Amino acid sequence: MKLVEKNQIMDQDAMRRAVTRIAHEIIEKNKGTEGLVLVGIRRRGVPLAVRLQAKINEIEGINLPLGVLDITLYRDDLTTLDHQPVVHRTEVPFGIQGKKVVLVDDVLYTGRTARAALDAIIDLGRPQQIQLAVLVDRGHRELPIRADYVGKNLPTSSKEVVSVRVMEIDQEDRVVLNEISD
Amino acid sequence: MWKRKDLLGIKELSADEINQILDQAVPMKDIIKRDIKKVPTLRGKSVINLFYEPSTRTRTSFELAGKYLSADTVNIAVSTSSVVKGETLIDTGKTIDVMGADIVVIRHQASGAPHLLAKHIKAKVINAGDGAHEHPTQALLDLFTIKEAKGAFEGLTVTILGDILHSRVARSNIWGLSKLGAKVRVAGPSTLMPPGIKEWGVEVYHRVEEALEGADVVNVLRLQLERQQKGLFPTIREYARQWGLNARRVALAKPGALVLHPGPMNRGVEISPDVADGLQSLITEQVTNGVAVRMAILYLMSGGGVADVPR
Question: From CA B81, how far away is CA B61, in angstroms rounded?
């Protein structure tokens, strides 16, 4: 299986603007920042959550608590995989009881990652609300899950792969649409 | 990537495989500290504990490790099983196998029993101690405890103290520590040293003071009173006086040296109570780490079978 780059969906500026807009939407929808916490889903949800935290701080002057969620142990496809994926640490160093948790991920696709993240969060406590923020929603849901905040809606075919590349991990900020070629 | 069907000993593992287990135990330990100590990962998998020898911590540790990962765990107490009617190990194993066991954890008084079982059943086999041969999960939890406290193994000197001859813990530890780059010393009465120990790549000491000098870690072995033949050492009191780890002797090791013991302890024999309960002792931490390491092993060994699915 090989990936061939088809076209660029977002550049650095577009990503920055999307994060800025989502930050505003989070504040608007929640009427401020009271009780809000951010939780990034490993891996690329984490740097996006960090950016949202900085942006919200810029706007409201409040630094929201930020956690990191590893959902590996909650995946529903472990028995169908060739080998076990590496488990990383979940680091949510604050109580989420009664909080409004904003889950942050890079791409929303089948909804299975979000489903796993919901289970993982609920095992840490009982939040008042869980919201979902994603940079790209590419459709093809297999579960009844939707995002509250979307950077970009992107119609795709199932032969395509959306790759969000972030400075912190990939040394560049851009979103690319790749195609699987055999 | 974990490729093995079974976990039978440390000797056949590579440093990479050992490190993979130690790395996976870190997030597992976080789960043990949560309010809700359960993740759904091994839902629908079964783990059978088949123990031919007494055990509290290893069996409970495997049982809890399985339960925290949502596996169904079953304990077979051999003294109340068909084994007392004369059933062979292989027949018992095959019976468990066809009931749908995914992983069998076995402890047996005979060296090599887990290897024999592994050859005859489809379920994956974990050695939880076979005779005086190996106790891989104990060594892995000792390694995890050392790594957690010291960060790395290169440049560390670890002294294993006591009854080396009867100790599967010593053997597994020696292989593991050497593979990860630590220097290993062994010390104990010459009657409790296995023949040919010098060829294992360890330094052999016959005086406890010399063995402890400058050590970073002291792993004290249990004097296995149930396995002793007569005449290996004069009396238990004599052993305690000559080889027991006490505060005065701990002071010979490096400042802040770690004290480990696989348990159960003979307090006042191989280790004095003040050392066992002292600030340098990580003995209770070892027990917690044992659950984390066994969770990591169960997780890694439960990899599925079909092709990799792109996400």
Answer: 21
